Amino acid sequence: MSTINEVSLILLGAGVSYLIGSMPTALWVGKAFFGLDIREHGSGNSGASNTFRVLGKKAGIAVLLIDVIKGLTAASLVRYFSFVELGSIRYVNLQLLFGLSAVVGHIFPIYAKFKGGKGIATLLGMLIAIHYLSALVCMGLFLGTLFSTRYVSLSSILTAVAFPFIAVFLYKNEEPMFVAFGIAAALMVVLTHQKNIKRLVAGNENKAKLLKKHRQ
Description:
This protein has helices spanning about 5-20, 25-35, 50-55, 55-75, 90-105, 120-130, 130-150, 150-170, 175-190, 195-200. By secondary structure, the chain is mainly alpha-helical. The protein has one domain (about 5-200). The longest helix is centred in the first third of the chain and has 20 residues, at about 5-20. The radius of gyration is 18 Å and the shape is globular. About 40% of the residues are buried.
């Protein structure tokens, strides 16, 4: 296969990944089953955490799973590229490209006037596809922080900041782009959570209602 054809297929893969990530799951679920625009309630984000807050546990779980699957599917598209060797550095780099394209789609969805969520669940999905062990460690850190503080935003930020170190420790520097991705992802999460950080500092950030006895 010529280099031009390979580049064309890679660009097509990135475009398809963006479209997959652009599916505004929370928005569609809100409108289809509850008759409301999730972006007009709660934090205004069309992501899983705001869905839990506004629409409840069942809708939140459904949105969370689908958003994770979006990242997982996008990062797995490289499997259909016969010119890329499974497990090679190029293979991982394309997983990163396609996964990040899906994350960008989730944050700036073309189907929803480019107003989406913060991309955490979709990031997790792509991470599962690339290195499931890192994903498991990140999920453990996220859940540990969440159950101890009940702040979803703080859990996301701390996990994202810790991720580059987790990547270095588990990947043993075998894939420098994976570590670079971890640093970029951490910066992205911090940037997309600026309002949450301000509320955390001010002490008025919303807490997740993990148990019925918890009240705001």
